[in-house]
From TrEMBL:
Annotated organism of origin: Kitasatospora cystarginea
Subcellular location: Cytoplasm
GO BP terms in the entry: fatty acid biosynthetic process; secondary metabolite biosynthetic process
Domain Beta-ketoacyl-[acyl-carrier-protein] synthase III C-terminal: 241-328
Gene it is expressed from: fabH
Listed name of the protein: Beta-ketoacyl-[acyl-carrier-protein] synthase III
Record text on subunit structure and interactions: Homodimer.
Length: 342
């Protein structure tokens, strides 16, 4: 097959959520908030949280295994993990996931683009397959934000949840259902402080692990404004690049950060509300896992059909953003029973 005729095609999708549910009422017992306050501002009613000792790698391994099962595969040529919450600062978590999946020897690495990580991963996977370097890629988005969010910070504690989802991409021909058509990415490091964990890196190693600097911080109002603008601009650019008119987009899957952001971007794109996929109510903001989790649930709920035009977009720390267009393959999702034990 000539590499000019090669396309990356999604052939499998799987997900994993930890079993423990944290409701808005649960949070209202420890924070100055209420269910109504949280839900009206975010669209979130509950989120999942890992138990002590359960890691991002545990969730990612289960989601990866589920995606391989969905694709009818036992192996792949490359493993990518999009995450903000690796098991350790060093080494990367992806090689450990690969080994646990029986893929020792397969190249594997982490991607760090915060909430845009999955879209960045689609770009990398698509480029690797398109160049002929690999025939199959397992792309995982997995997060355990409960381990980095300050439980006393109402601005972030109510937003984030834990979870993982993964897709398998394989080499295919143009026009094959599941084809990844186009991806565009962007960044602006001048806004790095808007979404950040201040301590622990090489710039501030003196900030002790016991200090508040270890927690994730976000300027919610400024992030809202920039997210709406960047996601709208990026999504519109990708739709134009593949020649899609608004009425031709069957499903818009934005990063699941906040229902207000999703609705605002949908309106700016001229999309009917029923075409905007939102899974925030049940799982909250799962950062790099949010788009594949939303895709998996939409497929499970029969909101996606073979041949549907799917437009994805994300915005996250860095600042980073990106959008992707694909044609849905009709693949059936597999949901793991729970995190894979060590």
């Amino acid at each position: 097959m000539n590499t000019t005729d090669v396309r990356a095609v999604v052939t499998g999708i799987g997900s994993c959520l930890p079993p423990d549910v944290v409701t808005n009422d649960d949070l209202s017992r420890v924070l100055d908030t209420t269910h109504d306050w949280i839900f009206s501002r975010t669209g979130i009613a509950e989120r999942r949280a890992v138990r002590p000792g359960t890691s991002t790698g545990d969730l990612g391994t289960a989601a990866g295994a589920a995606a391989l099962e969905s694709a009818g595969r036992r192996d792949c040529d490359l493993v990518l993990l999009a995450t903000t919450t690796p098991d350790q600062r060093c080494p990367a978590t992806a090689p450990q996931i690969a080994a646990r999946l029986g893929l020792a020897g397969v190249p594997a690495f982490d991607l760090s683009a915060v909430c845009s990580g999955f879209v960045y991963g689609l770009s990398v996977a698509g480029a690797m397959i398109g160049a002929g370097s690999y025939e199959s890629v397992l792309l995982i988005g997995a997060e355990t934000y409960s381990t980095i969010v300050d439980p006393a910070d109402r601005g972030t504690a109510v937003l984030f949840g834990d979870g993982a989802a993964a897709v398998v991409l394989e080499r295919g021909l143009p026009g094959t259902p599941g084809e990844l058509l186009h991806v565009e990415l962007g960044s602006d490091g001048a806004g790095a402080d808007l979404i950040a964990i201040p301590g622990g890196g090489s710039r501030a190693p003196h900030l002790a692990a016991d200090s508040a600097a270890r927690y994730f911080r976000m300027d919610g109002r400024e992030v809202y404004a920039q997210a709406v603008a960047a996601m709208t601009r990026s999504a519109r650019s990708v739709a134009e690049a593949v020649g899609w008119r608004t009425e031709q987009i069957d499903a818009f899957v934005g990063h699941q950060a906040n229902a207000r952001i999703l609705r605002a971007v949908g309106r700016r794109l001229g999309l009917a509300e029923e075409r905007v996929v939102c899974r925030l109510a049940e799982v909250g903001n799962t950062a790099g896992a949010s788009i594949p989790l939303a895709l998996a649930q939409a497929a499970a709920d029969d909101r996606l059909s073979k041949g549907d035009r799917v437009l994805m977009t994300a915005f996250g720390g860095g600042l980073t953003w990106g959008s992707a267009a694909m044609v849905w393959s009709g693949v059936q999702p597999v949901q793991a029973d729970g995190p894979c034990p060590v």
